[in-house]
């Protein structure tokens, strides 16, 4: 039981670290303009609308990589039930993504791609994890 809890915590922390790192790269490439208040939803909405698609693709890739990396790590540590552990990490990533998309509106194409991408990442993670985890 303790192994499963550790697997889940480590997987979640790994997913968080991956999202933070990759999105941090995005902020370096596409920084917030001077004078913008990141707590002001209208200013952030306008900023997101002005971003090139490449900037949003960095965020999308962060969420997908975090889902796969955190999920795979959780599966390898737990050594059981890759579908469960990959899905739990994916659910956490999906929940965080949906929360962000509702807090700061994103383009419809991005929202659809984020949900589809995270679901696909869960599926791929389970397939990869089954190589390492003998079910």
Give the SSE layout.
Layout: H1 2-29, H2 41-50, H3 53-78, H4 82-103, H5 108-132
Structure description:
The chain has 135 residues and is an all-alpha fold. It has one domain (2-31, 51-132). Helices cover 82% and strands 0% of the residues. It has 5 helices and no strands. The longest helix is centred in the first third of the chain and has 28 residues, at 2-29. The protein is elongated. It starts with a helix and ends with a helix. The mean pLDDT is 93.
Salient structural properties:
135 residues, elongated, single chain, mainly alpha
Residue stretches low in confidence (pLDDT < 50, at least 5 long) are none
Count of spatially separate domains: 1
User: First CA to last CA: what distance?
Assistant: 17 Å
Broad shape? elongated
Largest sheet at a glance? none
The portion of residues assigned to helices is: over 70%
Number of discrete helical segments: 5
**Can you write the helix and strand succession as a string?**
HHHHH
Rg on CA atoms, Å: 16 Å
Class derived from helix and strand content: mainly alpha
Count the beta strands: 0
| Arithmetic mean of pLDDT | 93
Percent range for β-strand residues: under 5%
In a few lines, what is going on in this structure?
This protein is mainly α.
């Amino acid at each position: 039981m303790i192994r499963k809890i550790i697997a889940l915590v480590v997987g979640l922390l790994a997913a968080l670290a991956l999202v933070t790192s990759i999105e941090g790269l995005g902020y370096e490439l596409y920084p917030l303009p001077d004078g913008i208040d990141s707590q002001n939803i209208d200013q952030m909405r306008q900023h997101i609308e002005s971003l090139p698609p490449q900037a949003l693709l960095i965020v999308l890739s962060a969420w997908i990589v975090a889902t796969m990396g955190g999920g795979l790590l959780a599966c390898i540590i737990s050594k059981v039930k890759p579908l469960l552990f990959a899905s739990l990490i994916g659910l956490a990533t999906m929940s965080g993504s949906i929360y962000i998309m509702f807090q700061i509106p994103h383009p419809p194409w991005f929202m659809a791609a984020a949900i589809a991408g995270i679901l696909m990442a869960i599926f791929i993670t389970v397939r990869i994890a089954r190589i390492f985890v003998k079910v």
